Amino acid sequence: MDHRPMAWGRPRDDVYGAYDASYVRPNDPTQHTQQPIVTGTSVLAIKFKEGVVIAADNLASYGSLARFTDVKRLRTFAGTSVVGFGGDVSDMQYINRHLTDLTLSENYSSPDEPRLSAANLHRYLSKLMYKRRSKFDPLWNHILVAGLDDEGAPFLAATDLLGTTYSAPSLATGYGSMLAQPIMRRHAPDEESAAQLSQEAAIEVIRESMKVLFYRDARSMDRYSIAVITKDGVDLKEDEQLEGQSWAFADRIKGYGTQTV
Amino acid sequence: MFRNNYDNDSVTFSPQGRIFQIEYAAEAVKQGSVVVGIASKTHVVLCAIKRNAEELSSYQKKLFTVDEHVGLAIAGLTSDARVLSNFMKHQCLGHRLTYGRAMPVSSLVDLIGEKAQTNTQMYGKRPYGVGLLVAGVDEKGTHLFEFQPSGMTEEMVAFAIGARSQMARTYLERNLDKFENASREELIQHGLKALKESLVQDKELTVENTSVGVAGAQTEGKKGIEPFKLYDGFDVQEWIESVADGPGAGDEAEGEGMDVDN
């Protein structure tokens, strides 16, 4: 029999077969996230008259490798809000599970009462992000929360890995904040113009911006998810294809890459 | 020396299946002066009789504001009530911080119910010696909850706890149908009338001894709730005068002249 200390308190190998050490928590030092590994790129959203449109492509990159091509980065919450995730995908999955738990406990404590609104959810997520950054173990995401606030008005706000929050008639994370944000601002420069925007126009702006991002963001893909949130609920489509692409402009681009002429 | 062997702690059942310490705690609630709560569709009202330990002292507070949307009335040990009300204030504040909204009243009451119940199940602890009426408004409208030292909580349309509160409850039962659609003023008057029912013979409602608390739900065409507000002293004078010697006064009060104040 094995009398060495590492065999103490374990099933005997000679009776139960070799011990599966994967069940034991390794005694390694605690690790904090130092950088994102598998990442999602931009999330875009714009307010319109009756609600919000939000979109993100279905790609999860491993560095510059397009590693997973069917990762859904929009998730609905309580049937009334949508959360869009940019940044680390494993942290997104963690938050996703966390939000499911939140829904469960919320439904348990008040089954017939109104659930958390998008505004409530955004506040909660920002506190979660800030708590994790204060532990020096941030959740490496940039999150957009879209839905309706407590008064039923369109709500759109962002929180990042530091717990910073901000809000605007249109928002974009990552590369989108540079490429898509100016396009969206042309259509909704302020709250008043966003309140004039029709649903069709808002969807069109988002689709157009997604196309521009696909042209110029090397971590993006032409399959994407888009959700429209109104008081009637969430209309989420998770397998959309970018239509009407034109790469004619690509011919004229010179000055980098392996191009020799 | 002992009344029996089964009332030394709150974790021991008697052979009859009773836990005496909890029953004694419920007695402490009956020693406190009476408080009444009524909820209509639009408003919820708390009314209380304050006591002063002696002629020269001030009156002991009976109503507390917990948060913008919640208030409570106490009957029993004031110090225990302060512990609970402090706890509730913290919970409401924490909820506002993390979710940016007012805490649902039922969740809040569940929390104190749970807190009080654990006290009845752990050796070396004692139940709270206080009963509460928790009044509040949230997305679902108005709420009135009763809280007992056993940890029992129950949502009520109208209720009264404290000394001689049975008289007030009888009044409430007789007028139950009128509450749902009552206006703010009517509801307060019903509360004060119920209070009067439970007064001992030569005592009456005065500006010194009466407290009223009101909160209003968000209704159509009105932005936001009417926050829970306490009314004391001369703020309640008009209401007291409006119920003075009105109809429905003490036809059942058979003057069980025992003065429970002590």
Question: Can you give keywords for this protein?
Answer:
heterodimer; A: 261 residues; alpha+beta; eight-stranded antiparallel β-sheet; five-stranded antiparallel β-sheet; 30% helix; globular; B: 262 residues; 7 helices; 10 strands; 23% strand; Ntn_hydrolases_N (chain A); proteasome (chain A); nucleus (chain A); cytoplasm (chain A); Proteasome subunit beta (chain A)
Description:
The complex is a heterodimer of chains A (261) and B (262). Chain A is of the alpha+beta class. Chain A has seven helices and 13 strands. Chain A has helices at residues 13-16, 89-109, 118-134, 176-179, 181-187, 191-196, 199-216; strands at residues 38-40, 43-47, 52-57, 60-62, 65-68, 74-77, 81-88, 141-148, 154-159, 165-167, 170-172, 223-230, 233-241. In chain A, helix 5 (181-187) runs antiparallel to helix 7. The relative contact order of chain A is 0.18. In chain B, strand 3 (63-67) and strand 4 form a beta hairpin. With 262 residues, chain B is of the alpha+beta class. Chain B is built from seven helices and ten strands. Chain B is 32% helix and 23% strand. The A-B interface holds A 109-110, 112-114, 116-117, 119-120, 123-124, 127, 150 and B 97-101, 104, 106-107, 110, 138-140.
Layout of strands and helices, then pairs:
The complex is a heterodimer of chains A (261) and B (262).
Chain A: H1 13-16, E1 38-40, E2 43-47, E3 52-57, E4 60-62, E5 65-68, E6 74-77, E7 81-88, H2 89-109, H3 118-134, E8 141-148, E9 154-159, E10 165-167, E11 170-172, H4 176-179, H5 181-187, H6 191-196, H7 199-216, E12 223-230, E13 233-241
Chain B: H1 20-31, E1 35-39, E2 43-49, E3 63-67, E4 70-76, H2 78-99, H3 105-119, E5 130-138, E6 141-147, E7 153-155, E8 158-161, H4 165-174, H5 176-179, H6 184-197, E9 210-216, E10 226-231, H7 237-242
Antiparallel strand pairs in B: 1-2, 1-8, 2-9, 3-4, 4-5, 5-6, 6-7, 9-10
Helix pairs in contact in B: 4-6
